[in-house]
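Friendly challenge for the regulars: who can give me the structure tokens for this chain first? No prize, just bragging rights.
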Amino acid sequence: MSGDARFTVTRTLSKEQQARRERLVEAARLLALEGGYPAVTMHDVADRAGVARATVYRYFATKDHLITEVAGAWVHQVTDDVEALAVGDTPIERLTALLERIIRVGAEEIPLTSAIVQAVTSEDSSVEDDRLVLFMTLRDRLAAAIGDPVPERDQVEIVIGHVLLAALVSLTSLRTPVDEVVAMVTTAGRLVLAGAIAGSGPAAAGASAGAEPAAAT
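First reply, four minutes later:
Bragging rights claimed.
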């Protein structure tokens, strides 16, 4: 299909339209949970949501666009309660707790997680805006978990975001055992954050003192 054939809703939605859109996202989520990426077709999403197939295309340009919306809802579900998830007294402890939470929830729903990873990493141009929103939401959650004003936190968030994506690919595509993936992503989180703290000089001496034992484990 040519790019000219793609269109999305940019106007403000009515309550009824918003409810219909949310129903489509939920239908796609359930299909992905049941059968992964191949199970999500626009036809089946329409049937599950109880709407005409053309209605799906009024809200979502492509299948990957729709599943990327599912990804956004998933990230909010997993990370919304930051205070409950950010366990620990140091930025490193809080960050690694959040990273572990994301990986373990993803491992519990492999078909859904796999569909999300495939859609989010798609070359489909219709996912670009939603992918950016998704990544910025994740960065906000990482920042909230870190909490303290860590030097170069923007760069830390970007690096850890890419590490997290690689970990989810390893979990879903390579079928790496969940404990190995958790160890990989939390170790990377500790090392990146400890390096940022250590590189800040005397101003972060107190934070570094608390972070060094965690980084050395």
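The chain is about 75% helix and 0% strand. The first helix runs from residue 15 to 35. Your move, everyone else.
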